[in-house]
Amino acid sequence: SRTEQEKILEDKKEKKIENNPELHQQSMQGQQILGEQIMLAIEMKKKITGVVNKRRIVGKLIDIEKYIETREKPKYLSSQQNQVFNEIGYALDVEQSKPAVYLTYKRIALFANNDSTIRVTIDEDILARTTDVSLRSKRYGTAVLPEGYYLMEMK
Q: Which of 42, 44, 142, 146 is the most exposed place for a label (fewest CB within 10 A)?
């Protein structure tokens, strides 16, 4: 189940890291950078025999950046979070993944009252860039959709 913090993070920026887009994709989600104490998520998605597996951990910007650079994990991890950090670190090392795309959007997430497995997201103002992919950069990029268009996904 998702925490309230993870739900909030999905409303914010996404930075994608990819090596082989068909087999392995990693992404980071964050928000407009206001300081090193903001929370963001690092997420890993792997397609194995046609099924996408997703692993996510939430942490402070400074801790996530430090982990990506040095593999030093934050001190506050549960055993499950520690395992996900290990998996993400392994993928970063083995796949030699590097920042490739910065994607940002404004999102509305809707949840069914009687079925927690149903979720609808509506994204607008989707911007992308392949340069200056730092999480500390301001929000800018090339519009992915024409003005007034939305991307809706049912999950």
A: 146
